């Protein structure tokens, strides 16, 4: 994929020879790597005012008001929500889930091989809103996404309920319709209309199936401003043998003949990390229903205690062949508790006898 | 039957026996909290007996929930296999399932020269000299391939890490592979072996003169080595409270952690003792 340049590079042009004599093809040279500010249509989220000097009586009153407003509702059962019994088909896209990467743990397979698993804690996810396909295709992002494709719906899911004091009124108003405590984290999941969920639906670890493959989206570890050796893997210079001030530098940045300038995309020191990345096709090896924990085989972008999003995989050979909990998992109505700790069949359960080969 | 009943009644009472190896006078200290309810507190020796239950102190990777789940998994594994108390300097035998061995199990005897890791990653290294060849094997304590861990001689040395045995004369690392378990003379105290090991002549793998080793004989090096060691030394580190604080888990958290696992570990110990006694009685 060659990036678009201002030069005419059709085979008939002079520039073609100059361009294609070069061994390197500079891709991704004019693509902006990341934005750190939120989009313009986002409302201001965090409370900007300083801590007001509020008397303890008034503080108590404010807390009572908050409690009254967000009084505990009874747990939502599957039958109450009025989801039309939709059928699952292989082209269905289910909702994803917001989780926190709480660390890594070793597990062992039945033949004694050690695997490293990432522990993901599925936070208190609730569906905030469903945007049907026609409406979503008219939005800014939706128009870009579905330019020449059939539009899909969008589920807005929130996680980590917090005290409304920390947020602005405009942000809290996003949750007024559903009557939930404002969530610290919001995410959008693209779903097919048959996997739509009504607002206030909880999403838990049971949404996933043991042995399925998932894609995990996260922002990579932020390394800050890094030099060329760490950022791009350059070899630098010799540590001794008379090298004067040339140990971790980049060296030459151009030839001087062709193009006679530094090419865009030249690898140099700069900010490293904090990039959006997907790790695809990670297998779920264990689910803990009591603590809402999902153990995923492999690593996940981002540092420990960072927020990630988990989706059903898009890799074609590892997609679902049988129906998963569609559109999401609901605990059984007759009150029977689900199995607390579910292990993949290939894994050695810790309470079982030692492996003998 | 009377013996079984007696031992079953032990399960109901707090432990007061001090009999078998691996159990020093483990007393359940019952302290009261503010509401007057008794709170079970694990004895302070637990942080030496079970150091892998304490998490890695680096704050970037800490998460209380994951540590708790990991401890639950560790206890599950410990319910299947006995992982005894040991220290660097103890002589141990480990039996591992091995597909390439003739009887499918491989047993190795050696002295523990180093232990580390926290949680399910806990490991220890055993060293021995077999056919004049020094052999070291790193075992992961919670690996399910391990069938049995025996402590043949429970003792400590003057140093926390015995890596200098690699540069010592081979007789200090040689232990018979058919060594039998030795009886402990005193169950309440783990003896410290004050042996001073003789090193081979230089070159060495590390600069032992810079490491303040207590368990080696006088190194007899030219003075310039000791001068350089002094230059490079950081004597202020022993006064650096924050450095030590960052390397350890605070005492209050340690108490909480061990209080959580204490009762389960005690129960497992009792069950093992019962099984051992029953086995002994059946043999008789």
Automatic annotation (TrEMBL), chain A:
Keyword Ribonucleoprotein: yes
GO biological process, one term: translation
NCBIfam families from the UniProt entry: L3_bact (TIGR03625)
Pfam families, per database record: Ribosomal_L3
GO cellular component, one term: mitochondrial large ribosomal subunit
Gene Ontology terms, MF aspect: structural constituent of ribosome
Secretion signal, residue range per the UniProt entry: none
Keywords assigned by UniProt, alphabetized: Ribonucleoprotein, Ribosomal protein
InterPro entries in UniProt: Ribosomal_uL3, Ribosomal_uL3_bac/org-type, Transl_B-barrel_sf
Annotated family: Belongs to the universal ribosomal protein uL3 family.
Species whose genome carries this gene: Daphnia lumholtzi
rRNA-binding in keyword set: no
Protein name: Large ribosomal subunit protein uL3m
From TrEMBL, chain B:
Top-level taxon in the UniProt lineage: Eukaryota
Keywords assigned: Mitochondrion, Ribonucleoprotein, Ribosomal protein, Transit peptide
Main location: mitochondrion
Biological processes annotated in GO: translation
One MF term in the entry's GO annotations: structural constituent of ribosome
Record keyword Mitochondrion present: yes
Pfam families, A to Z: Ribosomal_L19
GO CC annotation, single: mitochondrial large ribosomal subunit
Region called Disordered, residue ranges: 14-37
Listed PANTHER family: LARGE RIBOSOMAL SUBUNIT PROTEIN BL19M, RIBOSOMAL PROTEIN L19
Name assigned to this protein: Large ribosomal subunit protein bL19m
Species, as recorded: Daphnia lumholtzi
